[in-house]
């Protein structure tokens, strides 16, 4: 009776597990404490990606996603320096702009070195001095994207230690 109850209980608690062998239910048994062995049955489930699923040829990490006000969202992104290229930036900025349609104004800053990022803190930002220095002053690549209403563009430094930034205006979908 105890053995049958144990099997029923196991099948309720672990529906993905089939009871293969019941060693003992008597905790006072000479073979040791009660033990139950079961074998997990693997199931292959085919899952189709959603229609809006986007796959990238490079890795990126969203480091911060802050809603500064009802009108402005700011996102900090880290990518590897080897992936820093105009086409990759376009692809990333268009994706993030579509991912975060609200609020109307969006700023995305891309950094390629951990040194460019602000130090972690639970404290609110106090002013511009709490942010890391701009990438154009260092030996790192960086970019910043702006969406202001219907206008979208980004600036980046294709070359290191050069003060000139390149500006790319993105097409706005109608």
Task: Please write out the topology.
Layout: H1 2-13, E1 17-24, E2 35-40, E3 60-67, E4 72-79, H2 86-99, E5 105-111, E6 142-148, E7 151-156, E8 166-169
Parallel strand pairs: 4-5
Antiparallel strand pairs: 1-2, 3-4, 5-6, 6-7, 7-8
Description:
The chain is α+β, with helices and mostly antiparallel strands and 174 residues long. The chain has two domains: 39 residues, no CATH class; 102 residues, no CATH class. Helices cover 15% and strands 31% of the residues. It is built from two helices and eight strands; from the N terminus they run H-E-E-E-E-H-E-E-E-E. Strands 3-4-5-6-7-8 form a six-stranded mixed sheet, covered by helices on one side. A two-stranded antiparallel ribbon has the order 1-2. Strand 4, helix 2 and strand 5 form a beta-alpha-beta unit. The longest helix has 14 residues. The radius of gyration is 27 Å and the shape is globular. It starts with a helix and ends in a 5-residue tail after the last strand. The relative contact order is 0.12.
**What is the number of helical segments per DSSP (H or I, 4+ residues)?**
2
Structural class: alpha+beta
Radius of gyration over alpha carbons? 27 Å
Beginning-to-end CA distance, first to last residue:
70 Å
Order of neighbouring strands in the sheet with most strands: 3-4-5-6-7-8
Categorize the overall geometry: globular
Q: Name the helix and strand elements from N-terminus to C-terminus, one letter apiece.
A: HEEEEHEEEE
The percent range for strand residues is 25-35%
Count of discrete structural domains: 2
Question: Level of helix content?
Answer: 10-25%
Mean pLDDT: 75
Query: Total number of β-strand segments?
Result: 8
């Amino acid at each position: 009776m105890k053995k049958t109850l144990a099997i029923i209980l196991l099948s309720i608690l672990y529906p993905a597990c089939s009871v293969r062998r019941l060693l003992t239910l008597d905790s006072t048994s000479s073979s040791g404490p009660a033990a139950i062995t079961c074998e997990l049955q693997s199931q292959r489930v085919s899952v189709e990606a959603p229609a809006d699923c986007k796959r990238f040829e490079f890795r990126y990490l969203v480091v911060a996603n802050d809603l500064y006000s009802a009108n402005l969202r700011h996102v900090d992104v880290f990518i590897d320096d080897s992936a820093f290229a105009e086409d990759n930036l376009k692809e990333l900025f268009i994706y993030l702009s579509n991912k975060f349609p609200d609020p109307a104004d969006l700023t995305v800053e891309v950094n390629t070195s951990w040194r460019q990022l602000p130090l972690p803190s639970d404290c609110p930002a106090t002013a511009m001095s709490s942010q890391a220095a701009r990438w154009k002053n260092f030996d790192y690549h960086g970019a910043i994207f702006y969406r202001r209403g219907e206008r979208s563009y980004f600036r980046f430094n294709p070359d290191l230690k050069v003060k000139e930034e390149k500006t790319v205006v993105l097409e706005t979908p109608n």
